[in-house]
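WARN retry 2 of 3 for item q-0093 after timeout on previous attempt; input resubmitted unchanged.
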Amino acid sequence: MKTSLTHSREETVEIGKTFAATLSAGDVVAIYGSLGSGKTQFVVGICAALAVRGHVASPTFTIINEYPASFGMVVHIDLYRITSQSEIAELGIEEYFRKNCVCVIEWPEAVRDLLPEHHYAVRMNFGKRENEREIVIEEVHGVTA
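OK item q-0093 returned
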């Protein structure tokens, strides 16, 4: 488990870039945190490090954004607006858990049972100071509680 503190949007992006260096095609990243905690900025960093071209934005309304990458694609999923298990089933999220994707999921609580046993859990928390964020990254090798 690794914990980092950031004090700006740019620092959060940089932590995302550094973390991306540990990722390989087929990895799944579950990002937990409150509104405004920096989840999307962390994803912007991941995408920058994985050479995604174009604008990376939160897919709050589209739910899933696919970004081409040299190994296949980065899939950015935002489940904030999903309210039922039937909606989750319709999305077919498990289809993105394949070897040519890095799948990043914001608000993954609703799909916790679908996550592969090996994945990364990233927890984004507000710090004690203004603009401070605590980022906790854990590599999971089994079902999380």
